[in-house]
Amino acid sequence: MVRFTLRQLTYLSETARQGGIAQAARHLNVSAAGIASAIDKLEAVTGLTLFDRFPAQGMRLTRAGEEFAIQAAALMSQAAALDRHAEDVAAGRKGAIHIGTHHALAQQIVLPAVLAFRESHPGVRVEVMEADYPKLIEALDAGEVDALVVFDQGFDSARHKCEILMKLPPLVLLSATHALARKRQVELSDLAGLPYIAVSPAGPGPSYLQLLQAAGVHPEVPFQSQSRELVQAYVGKGLGFTLVGFAPTQNRTIEGDPVVARPIKEDIGHYQVVIARTHRSIHSGLIGSFLAACGSAISNSDIKANQGPTGP
Length: 312
Prior knowledge:
Shape: rod-shaped
Structural class: alpha/beta
Order of helices and strands: HHHEEHEHEHEEEEHEHEEEH
């Protein structure tokens, strides 16, 4: 247990610097009695004679006092640095935040938010974890991330609180050479008999395919893949269609084939993009600022025009 205070060390240092208690008292604007008492207590708890005292000539550190004062100066410097760091963190100038997200949202929302946030908070480190839904929930509950920017695939309201960022209705992704690509909107009846390319597994909550099935369309599913990019590639080769939240970047697949994304005329439901935190999470101004940047990333981009990588 530490037996002395930073104030006592400050009085020790200033007395040594000024060569006497009276001079130190004037410089620090405190009473000489207060400094004398602090030094006496410091010597008592350390068992050291820190000063040689010379009547009418002031005070000088002993050899033990010199060694102690060097360590005291280092400790006070660390304490001052810690105090500045605390002020910077409280003011949002320094610190770290940890965000979890999906692949689809990392590019469209989180990356633009990170870039904008770093401009306004250059001293803050942002760490982004990209994983599947179960791992993200596990990381959130374990406190490994401060918040999630994810598709709402079923949160436990007893543990989590969610704020809706945007609603994302599905788009029909088609080869640019498909006859339906010429339409501005696709009707459910247009999809009858067309094969569906599915992302598998889709994760908790209803998939876009399940929304389609609930609306009465039950396509055959000849191809499934865990890779959204490969699903897009199948579509680009004309092997079927899929439903997405965001169209591929520049409307091309990884194979270079042109694709188009068309809205569905009928309302078959949507996914919600949410900010999720635990009820026990501590409110942080930094987290609030970053999540506001996520909202701005949506408002200031083409996301609402549904450009970008696929959704769930």
